[in-house]
Automatic annotation (TrEMBL), chain A:
InterPro entries linked to this entry: TGT, TGT-like_sf, tRNA_ribo_trans-like
Record protein name field: Queuine tRNA-ribosyltransferase catalytic subunit 1
Organism of provenance: Penicillium diatomitis
SUPFAM superfamilies noted in UniProt: tRNA-guanine transglycosylase
Leader sequence segment: none
From TrEMBL, chain B:
InterPro entries associated with the record: QTRTD1, Queuine_tRNA-ribosyltrfase, TGT-like_sf, tRNA_ribo_trans-like
Name of the protein described by the UniProt record: Queuine tRNA-ribosyltransferase accessory subunit 2
Organism in which the protein naturally occurs: Penicillium diatomitis
Phylogenetic classification of the source organism: Eukaryota, Fungi, Dikarya, Ascomycota, Pezizomycotina
Cofactor, how bound (note): Binds 1 zinc ion per subunit.
Domain of life: Eukaryota
Family that this chain belongs to: Belongs to the queuine tRNA-ribosyltransferase family. QTRT2 subfamily.
Amino acid sequence: MSTTAQPARKSMPSALTFDLHGKCSTTKARASTLKLPHGSVPLPIFMPVATQASLKGLTYDQLRETGCMLCLNNTYHLGLKPGQEVLDAVGGAHKFQGWDRNLLTDSGGFQMVSLLKLATVTEEGVRFLSPHDGSPMLLTPEHSISLQNSIGSDIIMQLDDVIATTSPDHARIKEAMDRSVRWLDRCIEAHKYPERQNLFCIIQGGLDLELRRQCCEEMVARDTPGIAIGGLSGGEAKDEFCKVVDTCTGLLPENKPRYVMGVGYPEDIVVAVALGADMFDCVWPTRTARFGNAIVDAGTLNLRHQKYANDFTPIEENCECACCRSTEQGGLGVTKAYIHHITAKETVGAHLLTMHNVHYMLKLMADIRQAILEDRYPAFLRRFFSNIYSGDKTKYPAWVIGALRGVGMDLLSD
Amino acid sequence: MESRTSSSHEMSFTVLSSAAPVMAPRVGTLALAGRQALATPNLVPLTSRGTVPHISHDMVRKETAIKNFYVGLEDFIERKHPAPIYSVPVKANESPLKKFICLKNDDIVLLGSRRFPAIACPPNNTETSIAISTSVGFRQLESSRYIEAIQTLKPDIAIGMADLVIGRAPGLKRRGKMVDRTHAYTRDALDKLFGPSVTEGKPRSTNYFAPILPLDNAQQSIYLDDLAEEFRDRISGLALYESASLSFISESLSTLPRLLLSEPTSPHDVLREIALGADLLTVPFLQTCSDAGIALDFTFPAPPATLARSEAQPLGFDLWSSENTKNTSPLADGCECYACRKHHRSYFNHLLRAKEMAAWALLQIHNHHVMDRLFAGARTSIERGTFEQDVQDFNRAYVSDLPDRTGEGPRLRGYQMPAAGPNQPRRMPKVYGRLDDLSQKFAESESSVATPDTDADGLEKHGFAGKV
């Protein structure tokens, strides 16, 4: 199976501009602005996941208020409900859900493989049995792109051959990487609106750095408007994850956005930014909100815990989200005790914490960006980890120390 | 047009327009010191654990006209006393209740002992307490503790405790007890809250709405006489539990605002209650419809175009219906609510099928808006003196029943349904103990994770994948 680039390749227009404003003088962190068809996005950015064209109970005006410029929809879910016919009839997902800022859609391959255990991947596409009537079905790169064209998202993702990074089968990992490259070519070919939708490739190759290098080389040659690093956040060791991100960003062009898919936790994001990544998405902040967990500087608070029943302080002191601001400051004056009172009992409890958590993640990204622009990202990282571990450096995870050391920063020094 | 005012230091209720003191529709203004004035007849929005269900507080403030809230104390009672709500730190004159549930100072809170509608509790009420349902099980709420709650939590309006029988008709002996106990609760509460009489000019800590039991006039005549005479100076309003009670309000009590805690089944019912002289009304079907995916769609007085139609119009429509799949029109033509300004029916249909919470949030906003408009229309119509005719026209223009529920709603909570007796089927499928892979996948498909709910042809039609 050859993966050598074809000589005559379809030219790849871009519907975005990427302006790099500054780089950290120590780590590989970068601050930039991504101009997309539905507005400018400051990078690095966290993208909340509105899986089924709705951000878990929030209205899109509430999402705007958190400052969000770019959120995700899942092609898999929108393909099932409401389906391509409805999306075409309504005129795309922006109109469908009433969101006039940017959308990114994944290809649907990840959900297909992780949710449908009976799916098998062949060269043609993902084969699966229709769960309703058992008839064999095939999801191809062309199907995925056609659906994403109907959705009309500002950034669309190629269909890739997803396998767990923890897979022990090296031959299968290589096959998946090579196949993802071939599918990228099919996606580029099938893409109908490159002038208004940006197709991102997805670097595969498991935890094998050599495979990742080959994949970067092949995919960079295809000159997509942006590049994603895929196949991570699947339960691999964190230091392995960091090595992959570090290796890939080292080979990727400076003038394109880099998106690490499915990440994640604040710690993972701040480290991945230091390793040179720009874009992140994860369902965790919104999912954990529904279970009563608030993200704060010191980590995560489980507000269902009895100790918060009589805690009448805001979720996070000095947080500027609509919940935490006091009534004097035009906010709602929500307290930990009130969230404790309603969480997991009233849907409003989920709405309020979702607002807080999304706001927290976006504010974190804005602070990261500001720190990079002012070239004080290492100091930011020191304070960030000190907050989480109450200043106790012996508790800092080894993978964080190692990853940052790899980009020239000693987290343990003052 | 006559104008009569019932006023205490903190609250005044002015009847602006009314044909007769009782049994007639009337327009009024309920004004509480430092609060937004409330035009009556008006809706009393119901809360659950201090929230208007599904609408987060910021949306309530920005996109609804809701400024009064019915709150049940049982929602805040925990295993140990005092519950957290009693320790909320507040400035002088702030209400700990409002602060806890994040309401603005000028919002109006009506505190009752129980949620509304309340579920029947297996334990019995006693001479000094009533049975309540809390998140930690059934408890007794002592009448003295309820009075303390009123004093500490400082609601704008406190609804007196009543001995009610829920879910069945009380027998003859029980009815006698209901009256005696409620009489005693009321006397006790008024003495503790205000002393034996109210001194003119002395500010009241709260406005007390005395309960009138859902019984015949004759059965509670001694109690009613006391309300009209001995208690009259200390009560600021009446809380009624059925519209029939509106017929025996005495002359002396007629200037008091009437809060009707009932469960009308349609807007026609609401209009009938207004016609009988109710000032503040509860409409539980509003949320029931939102949960069921039904958008209300009616206007009072009925517009000429609706009247001109030969067939009676539906009162709302079911957004689960596949007719809405591709429909990009708003929920109701010309509706100015947030949901209609921002979204179309196709999206609602999707949200409901995808079980996304936003469906219920947006429907609540719309349905509250429709109800607000009904009350505003009723006030204008009463002032104009055309109410009777307008109601007749409305009854002709619209069908008599709300649409039937077809789709699923949000997960029901314990406080929304009566406790299960012995040998009853489970109200929710078991969620633990499914260890085999197949049923696990089934469980996933039932919850957050989407699996196709169509067959291979459907998937192909959706462009999702092709058949091979």
